[in-house]
Design brief:
258 residues; alpha/beta; Nitrilase/N-carbamoyl-D-aminoacid amidohydrolase; six-stranded mixed β-sheet; 16 strands; 24% helix
């Protein structure tokens, strides 16, 4: 396990306009000018949070996955985001981790946002996913999953825990921004893990406003960084191996978990 460098990209998104979204994220990626291990993009990065599943869905070998693969090759790193995937006759809000060789991890959003009828258009995932990147075990989560702490609860495995970090990608509205910030911090504290939350900015096709508030929180609950509201940009941050080791030794509350 070594320090892990992550680039958070907080951006506006364009309603169901894949070409424009990919071009816009490409501009942001030009500002990733130093080596990183992982780049994080928002939920439904290529379309915004749309319920028009049939018209925006792609297969796993579709153009947006191929675009992610190309950008991962350019930056010699992994990239994660969610997008709408069709598999069989089902549609999923699927979070993927892609490197230059293809998809190395995938997670289907478990908790579908019924207040937007997401559960009427998409199928829920049936498992949670922890993947390994350079010695870091990372839990993948999407937006509304943040409200369900039992699902993300870190497990005690011997003298260690199941994962070291959680990544949330989201389209989380501005009117509930305080809840977003509060729950991200809570997930970090209760699971003694780094939490990275990447949200969008701007206004979507349903006139819903997003302020972003993308951030990284360390296992002690300290907000190491938070984007300014409504700001677009790239921030490169480091998950510190030493911080994980310190909290495991100095405050091993995970050993008393239920």
């Amino acid at each position: 396990m070594q320090n892990l460098s992550i680039a958070l990209i907080q951006s506006q998104q364009f309603w169901e306009d894949k070409k424009r979204n990919l071009e816009h994220f490409e501009q942001h990626l030009e500002n990733v000018t130093e080596p990183v291990d992982l780049i994080v993009l928002p939920e439904m990065f290529n379309t915004s949070f749309s319920m028009n599943a049939q018209s925006i869905a792609e297969k796993m070998d579709g153009p947006s996955i191929n675009w992610l693969k190309q950008k991962a090759a350019t930056h010699q790193c992994a990239i994660t985001a969610s997008l709408v995937i069709e598999e069989g006759k089902e549609f999923y809000n699927r979070m993927v981790v892609v490197d230059q060789h293809g998809v190395i991890a995938k997670y289907d959003k478990r908790h579908l946002f019924r207040m937007a009828d997401e559960h009427q258009h998409y199928s829920p995932g049936n498992e949670r996913v922890v993947f390994n990147l350079k010695g870091w075990n990372i839990l993948l989560q999407v937006c509304y999953d943040l409200r369900f702490p039992v699902f993300s609860r870190n497990k005690t495995i011997g003298n260690d825990t199941e994962y070291n970090a959680i990544i949330y990608v989201a389209n989380w509205p501005e009117k509930r921004a305080d809840i977003w910030c509060t729950l991200l911090r809570a997930r970090a504290i209760e699971n003694q893990a780094y939490v990275v939350g990447v949200n969008r900015v701007g206004i979507d096709g349903n006139d819903i406003s997003y302020s972003g508030d993308s951030q990284m929180i360390d296992p002690w609950g300290n907000v190491n960084f938070q984007f300014a509201k409504n700001e677009e940009g790239v921030k490169i941050l480091t998950l510190q191996q030493e911080t994980i080791e310190h909290i495991r030794e100095a405050f091993p509350a995970f050993k008393d978990a239920d």
